[in-house]
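in:
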């Protein structure tokens, strides 16, 4: 019990979406391996990483999918969304455009994914407060209107990354239990 051969009670697929360079891959690296790189290369090929954790005495394997540098409009294929029970919609708080594109990503997500998918809006790079271009209140209001969870994170400083993933995973867990 509790060793590597422990049985997995649930596998939850969660997809990361949002414009290029907002920090999706670094958020995943932080969550899956507690790593961060300042000069991360654009992701090549669809890939996912997993981390197994315990929620309410059950072992949950989080399978987190990262886009393959396919962030151009409509380039993310439906296979990417297939079977996803959670999604993180990421923008960069220092780049207004990445926030302005969120409604497009949300529409794409809603047209491809299951209607009960759990979604969190994430404003990443909160460590760059002096370069902020998206007020927290704007994002909070948008999230509320759309019925999304919302958090600001810093993959660099490891602020709220765990919290953001756990918010999604716990909500998924609660909906299947
Ligand atoms: P992706 O294209 O969305 O996967 O973005 P990446 O994860 O590749 O990150 C793009 C760039 O932003 C890289 O240079 C990262 O080091 C940097 N970056 C990612 N997260 C943060 C963060 O929280 N703070 C800061 N200052 N830089 C970050
Ligand atoms: Mg990437």
């Amino acid at each position: 019990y509790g060793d590597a051969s422990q049985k997995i009670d649930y596998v939850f697929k969660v997809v990361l979406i949002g414009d290029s360079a907002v920090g999706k891959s670094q958020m995943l690296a932080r969550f899956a391996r507690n790593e961060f790189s300042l000069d991360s290369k654009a992701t090549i090929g669809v890939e996912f990483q997993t981390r197994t954790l315990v929620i309410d005495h059950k072992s949950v394997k989080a399978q987190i999918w990262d886009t393959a540098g396919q962030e151009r409009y409509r380039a993310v294929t439906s296979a990417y969304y297939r079977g996803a029970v959670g999604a993180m919609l990421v923008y960069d708080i220092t780049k207004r455009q990445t926030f302005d594109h969120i409604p497009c990503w949300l529409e794409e997500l809603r047209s491809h994914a299951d209607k009960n998918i759990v979604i969190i809006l994430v404003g990443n790079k909160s460590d760059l407060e002096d370069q902020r271009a998206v007020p927290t209140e704007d994002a909070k209001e948008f999230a509320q209107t759309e019925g999304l969870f919302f958090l600001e994170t810093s993959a660099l400083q490891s602020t709220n990354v765990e919290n953001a993933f756990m918010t999604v995973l716990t909500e998924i867990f609660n909906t299947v239990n």
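note: Residues 24-25, 42-43, 66 surround magnesium ion (ligand 2) (CB under 6 Å).
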